[in-house]
Amino acid sequence: MTTAVKKKAPAAPVKAPAKAPSVKPTPLKAAAAAKPVPPKAVAPAKAPVPLKAPVAVLKPPVAVKPPVAVAKAPVPLVKAPVIAAIKPAAPRKHEFKSGDFVVYPTHGVGRIQKVDEQEVAGLKLELFVIAFEKDKMILRVPTAKAKAVGMRKLSTPDIVATALNTLRGRARIKRTMWSRRAQEYEAKINSGDLVSIAEVVRDLHRATGQPEQSYSERQLYEAALARMAREVAAIERIDEPSAIKRVESALVKKAA
After folding, report:
1. Contact present, 103 and 192 (Cβ < 8 Å)
2. Looking at the chain, which terminus has fewer C-beta neighbours within 10 angstroms, N or C?
3. Contact predicate 226/215, CB 8 Å
4. How far apart are CA 112 and CA 201, in angstroms?
5. pLDDT of 124-145, one tens digit each?
6. CA distances from 194 to 80, 168, 245 (A)
7. Interior CA angle at 163 toward 166 and 105, to 5°?
8. Residues 106-126: tens digit of each pLDDT
9. What angle do CA 170, 192, 195 make, to 5 degrees?
10. CA separation (Å) from 11 to 4, 5, 6, 7, 8?
11. How far apart are CA 181 and CA 189, in angstroms?
């Protein structure tokens, strides 16, 4: 039995190692080859300067003057004021006094009951206390404003005669709307003037045979008639019904 002998492959040739490249020595620069620089010389430290001792400067002492005693002037004695005896203020004189009949424009004839004083908002006010018996009313009017509100004394007999003559005159009725005339009549009644009130009575009076008054006309007529009769009664010192008859008699004479 034969044995097959395997042939070995020839070994690969081994290459010789490559030579390292030759490095040429680089010549040193002239700066590197220069001589070393010697170190600088260090200056020796200066010796410390000795400190001088502070010189104490003494100021000459200042002479202090003794305090001068100032003599104070004597304070004059103030005498207490002498309070004089306060006399009570004399009562003011007014145009109106207690018991007088007066005419207040919007209320007619009233009578002053007294002059009273009341304190209102810290102030003392002097007031006329007026009573209106017909209306059952008390009215207080400041005495300082009595003239400004139109309060007056009773009319003189001459003015009463003029008012009665006015009643006998012819009625003067404007041809305007009744509402406008009613305002004018109310203004005359509240004016407090006796002659103006007589004009309202004259214009609104209706005699026999004339058209009847409307309700508003009748109210104004009665208000003016009562206002005029009260003043005539107070002036002539008669009662109110008698004064009304006297006023109506003047109206009847006008119609006749």
Report:
1. yes
2. N
3. no
4. 27
5. 889 999 999 888 999 999 999 9
6. 62, 15, 17
7. 125
8. 999 999 999 999 887 888 889
9. 25
10. 21, 18, 15, 12, 9
11. 12
